[in-house]
Write a structure and sequence with these properties.
- Helices cover 32% and strands 23% of the residues.
- With 280 residues, it is α+β, with helices and mostly antiparallel strands.
- Strands 3, 4, 5, 6, 7, 8, 9, 10 and 11 form a 9-stranded mixed β-sheet that branches. The protein has a two-stranded antiparallel ribbon with strand order 1-2.
- Strand 8, helix 4 and strand 9 form a beta-alpha-beta unit.
- The N and C termini lie far apart (141 Å).
- About 9% of the residues have low confidence.
């Protein structure tokens, strides 16, 4: 008797069927359900491409930070110029004879107050002085400045206020340019008188090293900044002028050319007060 052996071409029920992997599979990892998921060359290439894109974006962001920060400093200078023009064009502005005797001018646009009637304030601005060691030249390139703390009287919380400070003598200028000073403590400060002439100024006003003015909601007035601190914004100076640049380098040593953003501020001051009259 002849017997024949039958071999089925169909897999047995208990046989494990393995999926055919594409030729580009080069590895696998388990997903959250424990199933193996193959890595393909295409997937790895996409992953590498995304990593390169993210790296490139990080590099671009890193190198764009100084340019963005420098833009902020230039905007600060432009805003200071606008504030100076507007304040010097109001009817009862800073007395001309006081401006003519000032060694330096500090402009702080849009200082924000954090509380009603008392509490901290924060502002960034610029300081320009008559150039030269004798403060006898044209107005200098602006140094970045910072105003912090203190209570400014009956100001509304969150209200932006513009401040203009006149630095009336060399001691006050030197103190501000080299360190943090407390107004009313380290340097004598007083609310500045208004009007075309300072003839009615008090003895306190005339002895002050700094005279301060404010403008909020269109109202211009002399205001005391006693208790607040004023200091050079050295980080801002370095971003704008280069590493290692100090406030004195900018203002006194005349080692820095004014940026284009300072054109309005300096043109206004050179027109309104071209000469230092403090010696008269």
């Amino acid at each position: 008797m002849v017997t024949y052996e039958y071999k089925s071409s169909f897999p047995r029920k208990d046989a494990r069927v393995l999926p055919l992997a594409p030729a580009s599979v080069i590895g696998a990892e388990q997903d959250e359900n424990g199933n193996e998921q193959p890595h393909t060359r295409d997937a790895l290439e996409r992953s590498k491409l995304m990593k390169r894109i993210f790296l490139l974006m990080a590099i671009v962001a890193l190198f764009s930070l100084p340019a963005s920060a420098q833009k902020d400093e230039n905007n600060r200078i432009k805003n200071a110029g606008k504030v100076m023009v507007e304040i010097l064009n109001v009817p009862d502005d800073i007395p001309k004879d006081l401006l003519d005797k000032a060694e330096c001018v500090i402009v702080l646009p849009s200082v924000m107050k954090f509380a009603i009637g008392f509490g901290g304030s924060y502002g960034r601005g610029v300081m320009t002085c008559r150039s030269g060691k004798e403060f006898s030249g044209p107005w200098s390139a602006p140094s970045m400045m910072a105003l912090e703390g203190g209570s400014f009287g009956l100001q509304l919380g969150g209200q932006a206020t513009d401040f203009v400070l006149l630095v009336m003598n060399r001691r006050g200028a030197d103190s501000i340019l080299t360190s943090q000073v407390k107004l009313g403590g380290d340097v004598a400060a007083a609310a500045g008188p208004k009007g075309r002439s300072a003839a009615a100024s008090t003895d306190v006003t005339m002895r002050a090293e700094i005279l301060s003015y404010s403008r909020a909601r269109g109202l211009f007035a002399g205001i005391s900044l006693e208790g607040s601190t004023l200091r050079p914004d050295n980080d801002g100076n370095e971003r704008l002028y280069g590493k290692g640049t100090t406030a004195k380098d900018v203002v006194i040593n005349s080692a820095i050319r004014p940026p284009a953003s300072a054109k309005l501020l300096l043109a206004t001051l050179n027109k309104k007060s071209p000469r230092n009259e403090s010696g008269k």
